Amino acid sequence: MLGATISVLRGAPADVAGPTVVRVTRAATVSVILVANAVGASLTILLLTLILPAPDEATESASLLRNAIGIATVVPAVFLLGARAGLRAGTRASRWLVDDRVPDERERRAVLRLPLRVFAIQARMWGVATLAFVALNLPAGALFAFEVGITIVMSGLATAAVGYLFTVRTSRALVARALAHRAPAPRETSGVRVRALLTWALATGIPVSGALVLSAIAIGLDEVGKAELGRSIVVLAGISLGVGLLATALFARSVSDPLRALRDALARVEEGDLDITVTVNDATEVGSVQAGFNQMVAGLRERERVRDLFGRHVGEDVAHRALHDGVALGGEEREAAALFVDIVGSTTIATECSPTEVVDLLNAFFGVVVDVTHAHGGLVNKFEGDGALCIFGAPLAHDDAAGAALRAARDMQARLRREVPEAPAVIGVSAGVVVAGNVGARDRLEYTVIGDPVNEAARLTELAKDHDAGICASEAALSGARDATEREHWTLGDEVVLRGRGEATRVAVPS
Q: CB-based contacts of 248: which residues, under 8 Å, 6+ apart?
């Protein structure tokens, strides 16, 4: 329960039940408003009885009795009526949350405008008190009654402003739930500028103006001495400064808290964490920024997902190059090595196994192919049925493409025989000049590698079936390897004219 209360008060209700959100919000709002009004009333009484100058008629027993009765009856009655009206407004604004449903537009606006509604209720409450006490003090003189009225209005507006700002803070959990399904729209409620100007006017501008008016009234009273007038001005100015400071601090927190949360969230995004969202719990431009941040992160998540899928389909190197340089039809000549790997007897496997088993076998087979190819700096360019074409030296240059392809062939065959023995494979390796680039159409293209080494590697797999190692490489691949140690693992054999080729190829096999 304590954790839920803290979450609600922080404005991030998360998974807290709707009735709990309403109950905690209502209790916090009523408590701070009652305290603010009690302090405001106490300061008003202090001002009128001990600080501000008053005519002799105001200190007579009859006048004191009238004000005492007013304080004992009018103040509690007005406060109770105001609290009841505030509770009723809060109940209407949060009934949808108790019913566990999405608010309609009317209920949504009621939540967003709840602080202004509470301010209006408090202003009316203090207005009634003003009229009552002005009437009670008219027998003591119109000027003193006016002084009483100005004092109560000044205190009431300042108290209502503080109550408004407190309600902005305590109702953030309600606002968060109301904005969970739609971001705040412009002009749905007051913006940051309006809130700032309202804070200044009600918490500083009006109290200071009231103090000036009361000082002018005091100056007009003949019996007021300089010391008494000076004390009144100092006290009024001090109260105005204190209330202004409190209101400004509340306003600053209402802006700085969500901005601080946004700053922390941005830091996590910068570190690569895209599984973060911020709670939209403000109905001003700040809430629009919160909603915009969530939309931005959602877009980044979608972009990252697309890039991940893109990279899985075409290879990480191709994906990074496409994202960095853009995509265009055409290719470029590169020195590269091609490794072609194929499953022997795939037709028999397909007839003896279920489709699901065939897919599982192919996934295990290609998992080894991809792992080994990446480990040696190559790219699995494409899967062709039960075979795969792996390229070393494109799209990224490799300082020893042929040597890497030869090492990869030996490692790949060893792992396939050890980890996927039910899928016997043959491997062909060749090297030379290829054309690497995007082929296809503008709206559908594919990164591919075209050239004689690719064809030669594919034909060498047919020859590899007649060798125990299941690997054949061309003399061009062996001579192109810069790693002398790797060349020692291979033995050159006879020349063979491969199917579909006019020139003979001298073949190398692992020693």
A: 199, 200, 203, 204
